[in-house]
Amino acid sequence: MRNNDVGLIGLGAMGLNMGKNLLKNKFNLTVYDVRDEPIRVLEKLGAKAAKSPKHVGNTSTIVLLSLPSSKEVEYVVLGENGLIHSLPEGGIIIDASTIDPAAVKKFSDECNQKSITFIDAPVSGGTIGAEKGTLSIMVGGPNEKVDECKHVLQAIGTNIYQVGNTGAGQIFKLINNMLVAINLVGISEGFVLAKKTGIDLEKLYEVLKTSAGNSWALEQKLPKMIKNDFEPGFKVWLQHKDLALAMSLASQMNASLPMTSLAHQMYESAKAVGFEDLDHSAVVKIIQRLSLKDIND
Ligand code: NAD
Known about the structure:
Blueprint: E1 5-9, H1 15-24, E2 28-32, H2 36-44, E3 48-49, H3 53-59, E4 62-65, H4 70-78, E5 92-95, H5 101-112, E6 117-120, E7 123-124, H6 126-132, E8 135-140, H7 143-148, H8 150-156, E9 157-164, H9 168-197, H10 201-209, H11 216-227, H12 236-252, H13 258-272, H14 283-291
Parallel strand pairs: 1-2, 1-4, 2-3, 4-5, 5-6, 8-9
Antiparallel strand pairs: 7-8
The protein binds nicotinamide-adenine-dinucleotide (NAD).
Nicotinamide-adenine-dinucleotide (NAD) binds next to helix 4, strand 7 and helix 6.
């Protein structure tokens, strides 16, 4: 019989949409965020509101997390009011955040001591994928526990890949996000050159979409660049965080990543000039600043 008592912590751009899909799939959902507003939205749709992560663990056996970084996950799982103090033995934490693979190991070890399983399940597909419930999910964890919570993963995603043991999901995800960032920097360069030459930008999008230069990033983000619309989406600072994690992993593995390193620096610039809360496609504004004084950004 499927376990229906599910918690959700972190109700931002991704988590709020995940919550709506869990409710559509008839889970008994308890939710928590440090912000009140998204809790009220899900409450109106049938979720129970919790006052702390610990409170979520009192009414749930499986808890999904969608938090910004390792720091917030640590607070929510191991903190004074953390899930570790209330989830029952056999409980499962599914972490859909993108965090440091080394932190996953620490959280998993601490949880194991309380007979709780910590599964890393970072996602890809953006806020649109979260809204439609069509995310790709890269899952690291023990087979039997992953099987036990597959119905929860199926409510938020369609491509569910079990990619290895605990922590492996994050490695897959960091590689995915390196590629997204490198793509975005390349698309930004193409956009700036196109604008300089005066060619038809809408036509450029139409042509590239069916040509060898196409990518997910191009399909999703070139229209935003053309419209000068940088409403997030996936924020600049989150993209920068993932590139920093990839660079750190590469350094531990003695792997040289010149393109990732350059993309990381572009996002460093985007953060430095105050674009941290814009969509990650706003890196185009940095490329514009590098070479063109006659383009308004
Ligand atoms: P977000 O900033 O929109 O949402 C994060 C949420 O966590 C916010 O609602 C915030 O209030 C809440 N929060 C912060 N600290 C908290 C705490 N201590 N306790 C409870 N709640 C807390 O971020 P997002 O874009 O939804 O991303 C969430 C995670 O998913 C990140 O790790 C990100 O890298 C990853 N991700 C995002 C996207 C995307 O397109 N936005 C795509 C794939 C993966």
